[in-house]
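Collaborator request, handled under Task 6.
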Amino acid sequence: MLAAPVDQVPEDPGVVHEPKFDGWRAIAFREDDGVYLQSRAGRNLTVYFPDITRAIRSAIPPGAVLDGELIVFERGRTNFAQLQRRVTAGCGLLRLTRERPAHYVLFDLLADAGGEVILDLPLSQRRARLERLLADAPAQLTVTPQTADMQLVSDWLIHWTVATGIEGVVSKRLGGRYEPGRRGWWKYRTQITTEAAVGGVTGSIRSPDTVLLGRYDRRGRLRYTGRTHPLSADQRAELAGMLSPLCPPQRRGGAVVHPWPEPLPASWSGQLDRPEPLRYVQVEPTVVVEIEADVAFEHARWRHRVRYSRARPDVSVYDVPLLLGEEEGYFGET
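Structure tokens returned to the collaborator:
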């Protein structure tokens, strides 16, 4: 079952809310002879999480089917990059599981012990069965917090976002059944409004499609930090009138000097599912734009695309917050 994005957390006496952890959604099938972990896209994740499969085998009876989020904590915060390392660790996987153990934060039960399918039961009853099932489970298997108290939800969004790295909240009807593939839940992502410098665009300077963003670090280097969603027609026209190609004085040996490679490596642009380098047009990094972004910010980059709000001709690139680290200069913004 999936969640549809919303602009505000729904308030309704029949709705409960859960923190949205930044991890990998996974369904766990406790089979007679082991455990099978499946990603939202249907990928087999079993081999990458031996610590989680061991915990499930020890605590969950055969036949049960669980739904939840695989996460890895580092210094008290979720770290999405540590999940990705599981896939590429190779022979170092067992060492990685010891040093950075995963947790499986569970929020639903699709089949109870013995294989009893309970999709049609209301969420409140599925939740009660899930809690009973996990009563004696190890700490790596835990039930996600759940509340109908909007004050507590506000506390999660204000404090947990910074402290633990949650992305927002997911809201669900207590009386709702589990409908695979349907967006019957709601998700609200915590957003910030901030500024960034324009270092390039896809499309052309006169008709930009998306914007490549950057921030300066303490050494004065413009670092790539992310990419916007496609611009609207009005936004294209606004930005096109402000962009300039690289100035001739930046040429060295006949080549234009720019702080980023062209094309942009797929690992930079986040196109890991389609790992082709991104062609773009380099521009003079003098224009500042205002953006809306979520809190998935790792390795000095926004992991998800951000939303372009407007150009800021009144702001200098030297007034854009410095790129100090993954938390500094980002989570302090409003």
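The cover message to the collaborator said: "The helical segments are 50-59, 80-88, 93-99, 123-133, 150-163, 233-240, 266-269. The mean pLDDT is 88. Please let us know whether this matches your experimental observations."
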